[in-house]
Write a structure and sequence with these properties.
Largest sheet: 6 strands, mixed
CATH class of the largest domain: Alpha Beta
CATH topology of the largest domain: Collagenase (Catalytic Domain)
Number of strands: 16
Helix content: 10-25%
Radius of gyration: 23 Å
Bound molecules: zinc ion
Strand content: 15-25%
Oligomer: single chain
Structural class: alpha/beta
CATH superfamily of the largest domain: Collagenase (Catalytic Domain)
Order of helices and strands: HHHEHHEEEEEEEHHHEEEEEEEE
């Protein structure tokens, strides 16, 4: 159902996209307008976020456990100069690890004391994945040549083409376990876009960035967007941060909207292509208080966005304790179902009986597959595989479960219901 709404949303995409650098908020707003499921999911996530932040133990700005995020970078290239080097990718990971730990050397640009006091170490670090979804060693980088130009923004049948091998891109790796970053060409003027938590289907949940905006070497050396801050900004969205001017679109001229963060002053504009100085007061919504143009969630030049705030950190940490929890815990079945799995056409994979009581038979399964069983909360339940395809489930409490069936190359998940009279 969500997918059907998504098709409608794409037909209604705004036509002024060439005038800005980040599409995340426009895409979210379009989906909220068209898709009741996304609207409900986002409302629940916002309610969770507010409640989590208000808990006394989360309010003090105390140090938290370091969150280490496994990253996979899918390079999807048409022109060879879009096939960015490993070195360029690693230069971006280094930038992220400085920016999200407030270890960037340009923090000294913030000369306004209240903003200095708001600077936060988000205590989030990023590592290229060392193990792929099938348990094999990996560099955390995939490379795909495509015949499609500007695949970064291309939709085919409503789908983001870059997220699907069958459409010329690369399939997602379990989007609950990895931060998926797709690198692909965008139309001129667009830097990228990210999925807010709860916004996109699992196949498309992640971040998409133009190759000349990713990293600080190779093809990403053209000022003023040459310091890797596009990824810092987009991953901020991925962890549920809005633009500083609020969630209204690309400006907030009447100062009606806010970013749900207490320590970023309300702001009217977006500072696109600007690099203001604190020596001249840049105040748009709150008298005698400068706008926080130096925040990563503005459109300021790379050299002039240098900080997250404590309030933004709380929103990101709430995401890591809620909708993005499995990035850290690595719990739960891998989402989404891999479409690389191809059962024989005359014997599709099925579970029988389903609902089940004491055992379930996996029909259509060839040899060499392992089966794991997860509760809907992500907990792993041991199951006994008596034969290759006969699984004992008599010890499972009644309820819904996910069977993950995989060998070294393929994986599929099936919903299993346990019911007893
Ligand atoms: Zn943005």
């Amino acid at each position: 159902m969500r997918f059907i709404f998504f098709l409608v949303m794409i037909a209604a995409m705004p036509d002024y996209i060439g005038a800005q650098t980040c599409l995340s908020q426009d895409l979210l707003n379009a989906q909220l307008h068209q898709n009741a499921i996304v609207t409900g999911d986002r409302a629940r996530i916002e309610a969770f976020t507010r409640n989590w932040i208000e808990l006394p133990q989360h309010n003090a700005g105390a140090p938290r456990e370091l969150a280490i995020i496994p990253v996979v970078v899918h390079v999807v290239w048409n022109n060879p100069n879009e096939n960015i080097s490993d070195e360029q990718i690693m230069s971006q990971i280094q930038v992220l690890n400085r920016d999200f730990r407030s270890m960037n050397t340009d923090l000294g640009n913030v000369t306004y004391p209240p903003f200095q006091n708001a600077i936060a170490d988000a205590e989030i670090e990023f590592q290229l994945a060392e193990v792929d979804p099938f348990g094999n060693a990996t560099t955390g980088i995939t490379r795909t040549q495509t015949t499609l130009p500007e695949i970064g923004l291309l939709r085919i049948g409503g789908k983001r083409a870059i997220c699907y091998e069958e459409l010329g891109g690369h399939d997602v790796w379990c989007s609950n376990h990895y931060l998926n970053i797709w690198i692909g060409a965008f139309p001129s003027g667009i830097a990228g876009e990210a999925s807010f938590p709860g916004q996109d289907i699992p196949e498309e949940d992640g971040v998409r960035i133009a190759p000349q905006r990713f990293g600080v070497t190779g093809t990403a050396i053209n000022a003023p967007y040459h310091l890797g801050r596009t990824a810092t900004h987009e991953i901020g969205h991925y962890f549920n941060l809005y633009h500083v001017w609020g969630n209204s679109g690309n400006s907030n001229p009447d100062c009606l909207f806010d970013d749900e963060v207490a320590d970023t002053p309300k702001q009217a504009g977006n500072y696109l292509n600007q690099c203001p100085s604190f020596s001249e007061l840049q105040s748009s919504c709150i008298a005698n208080t400068p706008d926080m143009f130096c925040n990563y969630m503005n459109y300021t030049d790379d050299a002039c966005m240098v900080m997250f705030t404590q309030g933004q950190k709380l929103r990101m940490r709430a995401a890591l304790n809620g909708p993005r929890l499995e990035l850290v815990s690595q719990s739960g079945a891998c989402l989404p179902v891999s479409n690389q799995f191809e059962p024989t056409p005359d014997m599709p994979i099925g579970l029988h009986p389903n609902p089940a009581n004491q055992f379930v038979v996996i029909e259509g399964l060839s040899a060499g597959y392992d089966v794991q069983c997860f509760g809907v909360n992500g907990a792993l339940w041991p199951v006994y595989q008596e034969l290759e395809n006969k699984i004992h489930v008599g010890h499972l409490p009644p309820g819904a479960y996910i069977l993950q069936i995989k060998n070294e190359r393929n994986m599929i998940t099936k919903m299993l219901i346990i019911a007893r009279l």
